[in-house]
């Protein structure tokens, strides 16, 4: 919605169409009560704010002895982030797993208590949020760009001020301390993924948009497609 608003302000004719996720491809299991794993999945680039996540995790690690941060992905900032880990004495608590296969990432979602997305720029519609919701895991993400359109603060996860490591750490601590709440939030995200971001919902909206262009029909008309 942020991108839609941005373009409309500049007189571009646009319509909103979210990504989709096939929830049938993702497991739904309870959050392990002994899990204090935090998961990041993404490109290791300054725009992703992983340095902020590391500073936040250092605060979490000082309070939760079993907390672990798993980082999936690679990129140009990898060496710098590893150096930050060493400077914060986190080398044994942060796991840089590199690029993994989809099947492996799905398993990591299942052993995580929370998924972190500390973006520093106005991301449009990050796929990792859809994947986390499909996996029934709560997301703690930057309140920027299109992210607030996907993460319902206090319901399916938490939003925090971009760049604020202390606020990020406090939101992560809430989920690590209260696994039942984390699980409720994760399931709320799963229900949202099933109802609003399914392949069927995406296809229906896409075909409505095609009809509006080709046949000059409004998406809300009675003649809109029923799938």
Description of the molecule:
The protein has 227 residues and is an alpha/beta fold. The chain has helices at residues 2-8, 50-61, 78-87, 102-111, 127-134, 147-150, 165-177, 179-196, 199-214; strands at residues 37-41, 68-72, 94-98, 114-117, 139-142, 157-160. It contains nine helices and six strands. Strands 3-2-1-4-5-6 form a six-stranded parallel sheet, sandwiched between helices. Helix 2 (50-61) packs across helix 7 (165-177), helix 5 (127-134) crosses helix 8 (179-196) and helix 7 crosses helix 8 (179-196). It starts with a helix and ends in a 13-residue tail after the last helix.
What's a concise summary of this model?
With 227 residues, this protein is an alpha/beta fold.
Order of helices and strands: HEHEHEHEHEHEHHH
Structural Rg: 19 Å
- Could you name the ranges where pLDDT drops below 50 across 5 or more consecutive residues? none
Shape: globular
Helical content band: 40-55%
Largest sheet: 6 strands, parallel
Total number of beta strands: 6
Structural class comes to: alpha/beta
SSE map:
Layout: H1 2-8, E1 37-41, H2 50-61, E2 68-72, H3 78-87, E3 94-98, H4 102-111, E4 114-117, H5 127-134, E5 139-142, H6 147-150, E6 157-160, H7 165-177, H8 179-196, H9 199-214
Helix pairs in contact: 2-7, 5-8, 7-8
């Amino acid at each position: 919605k942020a991108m839609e608003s941005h373009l409309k302000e500049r007189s571009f004719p646009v319509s909103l169409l979210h990504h989709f996720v096939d929830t049938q491809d993702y497991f739904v299991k309870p959050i392990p009560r002994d899990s204090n794993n935090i998961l990041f999945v993404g490109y290791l680039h300054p725009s992703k704010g992983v340095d902020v996540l590391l500073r936040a995790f250092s605060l979490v690690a000082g309070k939760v002895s079993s907390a672990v941060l798993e980082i999936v992905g690679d990129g140009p900032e990898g060496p710098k982030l590893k150096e930050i880990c060493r400077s914060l004495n986190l080398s044994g608590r942060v796991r840089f797993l590199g690029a993994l296969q989809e099947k492996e990432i799905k398993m990591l979602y299942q052993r995580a208590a929370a998924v972190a997305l500390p973006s520093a720029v106005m991301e449009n519609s990050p796929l990792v949020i859809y994947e986390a919701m499909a996996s029934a895991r709560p997301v703690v993400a930057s309140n920027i760009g299109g992210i607030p359109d996907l993460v319902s603060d206090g319901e399916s996860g938490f939003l925090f001020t971009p760049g604020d490591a202390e606020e990020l750490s406090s939101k992560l601590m809430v989920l690590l301390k209260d696994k039942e709440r984390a699980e409720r939030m994760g399931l709320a995200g799963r229900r949202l993924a099933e109802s609003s971001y399914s392949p069927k919902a995406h296809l229906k909206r896409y075909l409505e948009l095609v009809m509006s262009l080709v046949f000059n029909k409004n998406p809300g008309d009675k003649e809109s497609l029923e799938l």
